[in-house]
Amino acid sequence: MGMQESWLPWAVLAPPFGAFVLLAAFRRPLGRLAGWIGAAGATLALVFALQAAWTASGGVTLSAPSVALLSAGDVRIELGAAIGPLQAVMLVVVAAVSAFVHLYSIDYMAGHRRYGTYFQHLSLFTLAMLGLVVATNWVVFYLFWELVGAASYLLIGFDVEREAARRAAVKAFVVTRIGDLGLLAAIWGMAQGAGSFDIAETLAWASSGAAPAGTVTALGLLMLLGAAGKSGQFPLHVWLPDAMEGPTPVSALLHAATMVAAGAYLLALAFPIVQASPEAARTTAVLGAFTALFAATLALGEGDLKRVLAYSTVSQLGYMFLAVGAGSRFAAMFHLTTHAFFKALLFLAAGAIYHAVGTNDLAAMGGLARRMPKTAGLFALGALALVGFPPLAGFFSKEAVLAAAQEAGGVPLGLGVGTVFLTAVYMGRLYVLAFFGEPRTEAAREAREPGGLILGPMAGLGVLVLVAGAATAPVAGPSARLLAALGPAPEAGVGLGAATVLLGIAGLLAGRRLAVGARCPMTAAVRKAEQALQAGFYVDACYRRTVVAASVFVGRIVVAVDALVDGLFTGTAAAVAGAGRRLREAEAGQVQRYNAVALLVLVIIALVAAIRGR
């Protein structure tokens, strides 16, 4: 594959960066124009991303002129950007979903007192994800990786007056830090072994046989830890359902193309390392398959529309992890692409429902198909794509994942097929509860279709859900060439496809039965099972009683010792005041400080590597 110098990698970043700067400086006087500025930035980024994808589909990697950030001894860190086939696919997905979400948000967020701030944060979120994709060295990659986390914190906790939103934002930020430590350790290990932070050089070193087998396995597992944190894979999935406290358009972008997609993208990028270690590959496949089934099971007991969709995201990301572990980067990125479109559609439709009825509680809905037929139709389109019915996009990408699992063999295939059935069950249950039957509240009886600025982006995503499955067909041209460059497509037999379609039909019927049964008296055993599902099989409770309790205990000891030391030097009064202040910080979470420390650690690592390289 040839290299071509181009400014396109920087051009993709320029519009959201410009929108962010403009909104940061003038968001208040701009008023409603702030939404259009944010949407223009995302749309222009999509235009440049499509242009870059067209060029990259011809077998060219676009490399932008770089700037040296650090040069000492053998270590050189550059601010560079490049777009190959993998990056081109991801850029188009991120920019397209972001453009639709920005347009949708113009009407959805109208009247909010922090309207301009919302679009400022949304532009930053888009910029961070695009920057992560085009980065050519791990230092810059990690900086954007952390910026994605910081932007998600701002958006999940956007409604700052709500305690639940603030807690959800801190929880997401803290839990994903666990995974980030894994990524940081992997970057350090690769830089030490390869003597470089360059992504291409480190991947080549780790996968070429030059590195010891144990080192490669450790690197693969550390990469998996980093990806699992961002993508909400078991047991680090606990933050993702709570992240639904953010505005619904944020959920669409976060679940479809940014925060959680970053983990799957990391594994696709680190694919050579994962596949160079049979142990890392097998662990990735098993973890992904288990998470897919586990999250689908949890979705069965959820009564909140957005949280059902959140668990479905965790489950579908498990499919992507399964594909990488099974040896098919093609299937992983194909499913990431189709999932982005139908999941964004489902979340935007959920937002339209919330606008109409004022709640995400499925028990407060019913009969919405008559009141909101367009929304109901578009939601059905997304739901059927999620389940995997032909000829919708989700069918083809899901079959590619299962075909890869079939070729690899073992337990993951059975877990993946079981997930197909459970996905159909919870989506069938959700759809019946929300759209069929009689309205169960006055708000549901008075529901109305949203305006054109909300329906329009939903319709655009609906078109993509219909056609994206053909992205691998020769007639698709550039998209087919880009995906083909990621690796061979696994061959899915007719029998596997027919079996999954039949399982999907059976699951939808079972979901309908489950929805009808929800209004019937439950036995004690069924009630206990439902309580376990609603409690997430008590994983969160386990964290609270172990990790959180231990952290608070240690934190209190540290605070007490710190206060004692302060008292020896500054007096008792100052010590008491300092203890109170530090105790609040320890328990409330100072996210800005966490982020600064993470970035400082990375800079120290780079400097140490530079000194050692002299």
UniProtKB/TrEMBL annotation:
Keyword Membrane: yes
Listed GO CC annotations: plasma membrane
Parts of the chain that traverse the membrane: 6-26, 33-54, 86-106, 118-136, 203-229, 250-274, 280-301, 308-328, 340-357, 378-397, 409-432, 453-472, 492-511, 591-611
Superkingdom of the source species: Bacteria
Domain NADH-Ubiquinone oxidoreductase (complex I) chain 5 N-terminal, first and last residues per copy: 70-119
NADH:quinone oxidoreductase/Mrp antiporter transmembrane domain residues: 135-412
Keywords: Membrane, Transmembrane, Transmembrane helix, Ubiquinone
InterPro entries for this protein: NADHpl_OxRdtase_5_subgr, ND/Mrp_TM, NU5C-like, Proton_antipo_N
Single GO biological process annotation from the record: ATP synthesis coupled electron transport
Molecular function GO labels: NADH dehydrogenase (ubiquinone) activity; NADH dehydrogenase activity
Membrane topology: Multi-pass membrane protein
Subcellular localization, as worded in the UniProt entry: Cell membrane; Membrane
Family assignment from sequence similarity: Belongs to the CPA3 antiporters (TC 2.A.63) subunit A family.
NCBIfam families named in the record: NDH_I_L (TIGR01974)
Full protein name: NADH-ubiquinone oxidoreductase chain L
Species of the source: Hydrogenibacillus schlegelii (Bacillus schlegelii)
Upper lineage: Bacteria, Bacillati, Bacillota, Bacilli, Bacillales
